[in-house]
Write a structure and sequence with these properties.
The chain has about 140 residues and is an alpha+beta fold. The chain contains two helices and seven strands. It starts with 9 loop residues before the first helix and ends in a 7-residue tail after the last strand.
Length: about 140
């Protein structure tokens, strides 16, 4: 069955990115504060169901050398017919580095962005964000 896509507006793309970025930062703050670490997490905006966390499915059929990020992208590709947009968030801090930052990869059917979000954890209850930097991102699902 062919799906006929409606005309996408820039406002829709911006709204999706704003919502996805907010959810990604909340998830990252919670997981980093509780676990002192963050594996990549995907949040999707499904056409049929709206915004939700995209679960990483089991290890079956995946190579041990395949990263969590790569597995997430593969699963997003398989579900892309029902996706309007998605984000992947991960802690991009290099081991031993003094600066800490999240990286959020956002993609909508019409545009992709990469956002760097510096953060500081001053105590177990404080997750402070620094000034974000945005750049054009690589399109992974829709090219």
């Amino acid at each position: 069955m062919m799906t006929k896509w409606r005309e996408v507006t820039s406002a829709e793309c911006q709204e999706d990115f704003d919502d996805l970025l907010d959810v990604c930062v909340e998830i990252a703050a919670e997981r980093i504060s509780e676990n002192w670490g963050l594996d990549p997490v995907a949040v999707v905006n499904r056409i049929s169901l709206g915004l939700k966390i995209f679960p990483l499915e089991g290890e079956a059929g995946t190579s041990s050398t395949m990263t969590v990020h790569d597995r997430l992208v593969g699963q997003l590709r398989a579900a892309s017919d029902d996706l309007r947009s998605y984000a992947i968030v991960f802690d991009a801090t290099a081991e031993g580095a003094s600066d800490t930052h999240l990286e959020v990869l956002l993609e909508h059917r019409e545009y992709a962005m990469r956002i760097c979000v510096p953060y500081v954890i001053s105590d177990a209850r404080a997750f402070d964000l620094g000034p974000m930097k945005a750049a054009v991102g690589q399109r992974l699902l829709w090219g």
